[in-house]
Amino acid sequence: MAPAFRLDRRAFLACAACAAAGTRFAAAETTTATARDPLKLEKLADGVFAFAAPYELLAPENGGAICNLGLVVGSQAAAVIDTGNSVLTGQRMLEAVRRVTDRPVRYVINTHMHPDHVLGNAAFRGAGGSEPVRFVAHRKMPRALAVRTDTYTDQVRRLLGPLAEGTEVVLPDLLVEERMSLDLGGRVLILESWPTAHTDNDLTVFDEASGTWFLGDLLFVGHVPTLDGSLKGWLTLMETLKARGAARVVPGHGPASVAWPAAAGDERRYLHLVEADVRRLIAEGQPMSVAPDRVAQSEREKWALFDEFNPRNAIAAYHEYEWE
Ligand SMILES: [Zn+2]
Fold it and tell me: Is residue 35 domain-resident?
C-alpha cells in the first residue's frame, strides 16, 4: 500500500525536479525505464531468480517496481511470483523472464492482494504459449482484491500518470484452498494459504528442488512491516513459519534472498513491540489518537519508510487490541 505522499529526501528532490519541469510527469517520462527494459534478476539457485525492489513508495521514478518478484523455471514451464504495481513493471518482469528462459509462463502466482504485488498481472496474459496463463492466489484473494479494485487503479493512475496506462486488475482463476502443488516439469512448487496475518489472503510458495521459500509480505526485511490483517495472527503465524526449514527465503520487501529463520528476527521484534506498546496504552486508558506517536518509537531508525507506515500500524493494532 502506498500513501499519496512521499516524505523521504529522495522523493523531495524528485518532486522538486518535477515542479521545475512544469508538471509532475514531464520529468518522469524521460527518466523512467520503458516496458522493454528488463528488471534486474538475481539468480538464487538453478532455475530460481528474484528481483529485489528498492524501499520506495509508488512513484514515476520506479514505475511501480516496488516489491520483490520471483521466477522459477522447470523443464516444461515457468512460474512468476508477484508482478509489481503497474502493467509496466509486469512487462519489464516478462522481459527479464525472456532473457532467462523461452519456456511458457504457465502460472502467475500472487502472494496477496496488495497493489504492488498484483497490478502487473495483465502483462503475462499471452505468456503461456499454447495454453492460457493461470493466475493463482489464496482462496480469499479475489474478494479482497475485487472490493479494492477502484481504489488501487485510481491510486496508480494518480501517482504514475501516463506510466500507468494499461494497468488493470486481473483476478486469479486458480484458487488455493489450503495447499496446492504445481508441477513445472522436474520441479514442484508447494503453495500454501495461511490464516489472517499481513492480510487475510497471504500465500507462500516453496520450491522443493532448491529449498527456496517465497514468503511474500509475511516477511519484511529493511522496509518496515505493514499491517493490513491481524497482528495477533501474524505473530502466531511467524512461529509456525520459523519452525520450518528452508535453504533461503525471499521476502516481499528486502534483499532478493535471506537466511531462514534468522531473517525473521527484526520483524518479530518490531511486531512484538507494537503489540506491547498498544496493550500498555489501552491499559492506561490512553486514546487511539496518541498511538501513532507512542508506539514502537525505538524502532524508528531501524527501518526504511517507518514514518510512512508505523502510524497506521499503530492505529490498526489499537483497533485490534481495544476489545480483547
Ligand atoms: Zn503487502
Answer: yes
Rounded to the nearest whole angstrom, what is the distance from the C-alpha of residue 134 to the centroid of ligand 1? 21
The model's pLDDT over 43-93, given as tens digits with 9 standing for 90+, comes to 999 999 999 999 999 999 999 999 999 999 999 999 999 999 999 999 999
- How far is the centre of ligand 1, averaged over its atoms, from the C-alpha of 186 (Å)? 31
DSSP summary character for residue 51: E
259 in a domain, yes or no?
A: yes
C-alpha 54 to ligand 1 mean position (Å): 15
d(CA 21, ligand 1 centre) in Å: 33
Give how many domains the chain has, as a whole number: 1
What's the CA-to-centroid distance between 309 and ligand 1, angstroms? 12
Q: How far apart are CA 254 and CA 320, in angstroms?
A: 27
Domain harbouring 145, CATH code: 3.60.15.10
Residue 270 included in any domain:
no
Which residues have C-beta within 8 Å of that of residue 48, sequence separation ≥ 6? 70, 71, 72, 73, 207, 210, 212
**60, part of any domain:** yes
* C-alpha 172 to ligand 1 mean position (Å): 17
pLDDT of 101 > 90? The answer is: yes
SS3 at position 160: helix
